[in-house]
Design brief:
Length: 667
């Protein structure tokens, strides 16, 4: 009897990967295709069709499809996402200044409502008037709405009332904060909910594209999505809580790295097109960040792998530090489309322009740069200003030279805003182009990479000297810079995990001397305490030099380029629910966290109810997330100090964790 197959898919910023996996034989086939942001189904189909072509009769044997992605992570790192409205219930305007909430909100609308609850779940009356006044205009302003209520984790009834009102009168996707976290800290919970709302359309496009392709291909199997802690959830749950897919791709890569190498203790560094993601394996399990995942500028309330994400990858923007006498190169954090890729896809639109710019006697500030639309739905252009809309209309789905598109440098800010919304992508010189110049990559158009390098090399530092004498010299500078920044990123991540503060590897003289092997009366060195596992398609190109700089053994496993897709199919479903018991001053015991507050007179009865609710809710959540027979473990933490000889219950927390293998078709 032929064994069932699992199909793993990972959609990254540059590539979409696919693997066919058998529990008895491991990885049977793997493939890559370019991620097609304008229509994600094209990239998914390209990768999946390639692996299906390698295994006869594979379609009928697929029993599970699992998806991981870096799209949500990349969007937060690059400051992208749809425009979202925020409804704050019971919060004061000054609360907007906490935890980076106002910065994250930017110019998106916020509506303040009276209401909310206290720590024991007792309410302040809800006033819906200000929201009712905006119901007719909101759909034209935003693509989704986030709702955060004061102490909603103790009593979510006001969030539910606002959600129901919005669903009655609009078709906007709505996210409630109590569905995302059971932890206190209203502003950070509001921030997490806002980011979730911004990501809904992006993750929905990916899931719809994947589901549509699977249906057309006749693959009738459950579709799962990797969460940021490495666990699996059903696609339906991922659509409700897309914020939980931040660090999905990196989490899948850790699971995949453990599976591919067999190492229990390692530093995992996964280099993609947009980011480098670094985490630690301890005793065979990824370290989790209990305080909430930090991605880009934002610390969320999403429990995820303790991953450090840096805007550094093969497609990072190459910057010239022009102020100093010696030209300095730095990379990222913004992603560009490599010139070699742009010319590979649109040779007639890119190569003649680069050649014309090379013939000019002096380099222009916008030479070697192009803009093109990402192809997102028109609905996501809601809220564009007149200037933004005018510039957007002049940009098409094929690259347009910035030298022709922008009439002045003042328009760069407008273009940057379109890029931050994810509506426009810039093409320019990147490390991937540098590798094409050096002959270490060859999948795209090397001629465009060479032209881009020559254009960039003509630019001048403050001394008046050109950046580099030849395109190869420039490519070597970029390669060396990626090695150095990657080494600094690894050290930054590990120092943070050790709790060591006050040392910035990018600025430390001692670390500089250790990494550059500078000689002196005192010689410095450093090394890691565990091997470095490098993942990603370009890992074999970059990571031998990075491991050498860090003086550590490196592992680049077979299938390193598709480790995310491998990790996507070997994970488990896991859901946790926490129920709280507190003792209000007016007597009784309040049980809250999963619906309306219940007051019981007896402490033991309150504890018993909390245990029952936690176990039941966790089991039901795990079943919704895609497992049929979850195993439930219960953890208790009871804080009841003795004050003046009297025992006082501060808070009791009952956390149930339900886990199991995902259900499979025919299983």
């Amino acid at each position: 009897m032929t064994s069932p197959l699992f199909l793993g898919i990972d959609t990254g910023g540059t590539y979409t990967d696919a693997v066919l996996y058998s529990e008895s034989e491991g990885v049977l086939a793997s493939a890559k295709a370019l991620t097609t942001r304008h229509d994600l189904a094209v990239g998914v189909a390209g990768a999946v069709e390639s692996v299906l072509s390698e295994i006869g009769g594979a379609t009928a044997r697929i029993r599970l499809v699992s998806l991981s992605t870096t799209l949500a992570t990349n969007a937060l790192v690059e400051g992208q996402g749809g425009r979202a409205g925020l409804v704050m219930i019971g919060f004061a305007p000054k609360d907007m200044t906490r935890d980076g909430l106002a910065d994250a909100l930017g110019s998106d609308p916020v509506i303040h409502l009276a209401g909310g609850h206290d720590v024991h779940g007792r309410e302040t009356p809800l006033e819906l008037g200000p929201l009712e006044d905006r119901l007719s205009s909101l759909p034209g302003e935003v693509s989704a709405v986030a709702i955060a209520g004061y102490f909603a984790v103790r009593n979510p009834s006001h969030e539910i009332a606002v959600r129901d009102l919005l669903r009655q009168h609009t078709s906007l996707p709505v996210t409630c904060s109590h569905d995302l976290s059971s932890r206190l800290g209203g502003p950070r919970r509001a921030l997490t909910t806002l980011l979730n709302a911004r990501l809904i359309s992006m993750v929905a496009r990916l899931i719809d594209a994947t589901s549509g392709f699977l249906g057309k291909r006749g693959i009738d199997a459950p579709l799962m999505v990797v969460r940021g802690d490495g666990a699996l959830i059903s696609a339906a749950e991922a659509l409700l809580r897309p914020i939980e897919t931040i660090l999905s791709g990196p989490a899948a890569s850790l699971v995949g790295a453990r599976h591919l190498t067999g190492l229990d203790n390692a530093v995992i560094s996964d280099i993609g097109g947009t980011t480098t993601d670094i985490a630690v394996l301890d005793n065979g399990r990824p370290r989790l960040d209990r305080e909430g995942a930090t991605v880009g500028r934002y610390r969320t309330m999403v429990e995820a792998v303790a991953m450090h994400t840096f805007g550094l990858g093969g497609d990072s923007e190459v910057w010239l530090e022009e102020s100093g006498l010696v030209a300095g190169i730095t990379l990222g954090p913004r992603r560009l489309m490599p010139l070699s890729l742009a010319a590979h896809l649109w040779p007639d639109a890119v190569l003649p322009v680069l050649e014309k710019q090379l013939r000019a006697p002096y380099p222009g500030r916008m030479d070697g740069r192009f803009a093109l639309r990402t192809g997102l739905p028109e609905a996501l252009t809601a809220g564009l200003t007149g200037q933004e809309a005018g510039l957007y209309e002049r940009i098409g789905l094929e690259p347009v030279p910035l030298s022709e598109l922008l009439s002045g440098t003042w328009q760069r800010a407008t273009l940057d805003r379109l890029m931050s919304r994810g509506l426009v992508l810039t093409a320019g010189f990147t490390p991937s182009d540098a590798m094409h110049v050096l002959g270490q990559q060859d999948q795209w158009n090397a001629e465009a990479a060479m032209h881009g390098a020559e254009i960039f090399a003509r630019r001048k530092a403050g001394s008046g000297k050109v950046v580099a004498q030849t395109p190869v010299d420039l490519a070597n500078l970029v390669s060396a810079r990626l090695t150095r920044q990657s080494s600094e990123a690894v050290l930054t991540a590990l120092l943070a995990d050790e709790g060591i503060t006050g040392i910035d590897p990018a600025k430390s003289t001692l670390i500089d001397r250790a990494l550059s092997r500078k000689r002196g009366f005192v010689c410095f060195g450093l090394r890691l305490d565990r091997p470095l596992v490098a993942l990603g398609a370009s890992a074999p190109v970059h990571y031998p030099a990075i491991a050498e700089m860090l003086d550590i053994e490196s592992h680049i496993p077979m299938h390193a380029g598709v480790a995310n897709a491998v990790g996507a199919v070997v994970g488990q479903v896991r859901e946790t629910v926490t129920v709280f018991v507190t003792e209000p001053e007016d007597g009784g015991y309040a049980v809250n966290g999963v619906g309306d507050t219940q007051i019981l007179e007896d402490r033991d009865a309150a504890f018993a109810l909390a245990r029952q609710l936690a176990e039941t809710q966790a089991r039901e959540a795990a079943i919704r997330s895609g497992t049929d027979h979850p195993v439930v473990d219960l953890y208790e933490q009871i804080d009841k100090p003795v004050i003046d000889g009297i025992e006082k219950l501060i808070e009791a927390r009952f956390t149930a964790a339900a886990s199991g293998r995902p259900r499979i078709a025919g299983g």
